[in-house]
Amino acid sequence: MKDTVFSPAFGNRPSCLVGRDTVISCMLDGLKDPPGSRNRATLLLGQRGSGKTVLLWELADRARTLGFVVASPTIATEDMLERILEKIQDDGEQYGKEKATHLTGGSIGALGFSAGLQFSRDTQESKTFQYKLSRLCNALAPHGKGVLILVDETQGNDPRIRQLVAAYQELVGNQANIALVMAGLPGAVSATLNDRVLTFLNRANKMQLDPLAPTDIDAFFIKAFAQMGLCVPEPFRNRAVAATFGSPYLLQLVGHNIVTYSEEGAIGESELERALAQARTSFENDVCGTTLAALSDKDICFLRAMAEDQRESHIADIAVRMGVSYDYAQKYRKRLIDGGIVEPARRGSIRFAVPHLADHLRKTSEIVYGF
Hints:
Blueprint: H1 21-32, E1 41-45, H2 52-65, E2 68-75, H3 80-91, H4 93-96, E3 102-103, E4 106-107, E5 113-115, E6 118-119, H5 121-126, H6 129-140, E7 146-152, H7 159-173, E8 178-184, H8 186-194, E9 205-208, H9 214-227, H10 234-244, H11 248-261, H12 269-293, H13 297-306, E10 313-314, H14 315-322, H15 326-338, E11 342-346, E12 349-352, H16 357-364
Parallel strand pairs: 1-8, 1-9, 2-7, 7-8
Antiparallel strand pairs: 3-4, 5-6, 10-12, 11-12
Helix pairs in contact: 1-2, 3-6, 6-7, 8-15, 9-10, 10-11, 11-12, 13-14, 14-15
């Protein structure tokens, strides 16, 4: 069968958001608050595959209907600030071309623009990001338009993030019609909040993307499979729901592979097994592999020590397996929790936060302890 519903490419926008209505509604409610409201700044925290990027794109579309010019999701890279300005200019271009060229405080040219929302050469070359962002907000205000900035993959201790937040804070103080949403791994966002220069962000809304509820996943599967005329018996569907572990990305992978492996509008036991196995393999390659690639050898050594346990791991046991002190092992525990890779289970214990990561470690390398 041809898959007309699921979109399993990593970071791709699916045809339907599952189980995130409350999150979207809360962010949209914040945009409806008056300029300067603390609800206009949101920090979106989620593990890999939790759908942060998809939510940002959805918010971008819906924010435009509320009168916002949007700097669509921008990854925190070297040219992030320049890209944000360009995206605001592109998204608000239609308002800069209107006949009303005289704004409060002077003409568009006097405010540093050469045409529309494009900056004059002098402004572009000599003025700061903060100045240019302020000019864009001022130019859009007479048209009743606010500015929404969306940042993806927020990194802790990033000078560009500092510049962006400092500019936002000043504009908020001036009652500019602006809003900011930044998404990232819990550890990266935590590091950003702990930055003494960015204490302003501690007043922002913090929204954690928890695993999707099984009932929401099942309801979506029922609707999606019916839409494609595919018969999936309830026991098979229950196994498919369990195989997602509440991950939006795994949901897309599982659904896509069930459709792919089905025959003549139905799926049998063997086809289901192959579909779930392929979904798992894809997730391990796309998420588990890239997660490990970004870690140090010592981080991986800690995770390998964890992988010897089936569910939860005691820090004391991990320290013994690594041949290090309890306090030394605690340092890596904190690093990996901050990175969104493991999570506290109960006092003195942790577990993997990324589905299939433990099995992936067991399969791809021998467990070797020590440094």
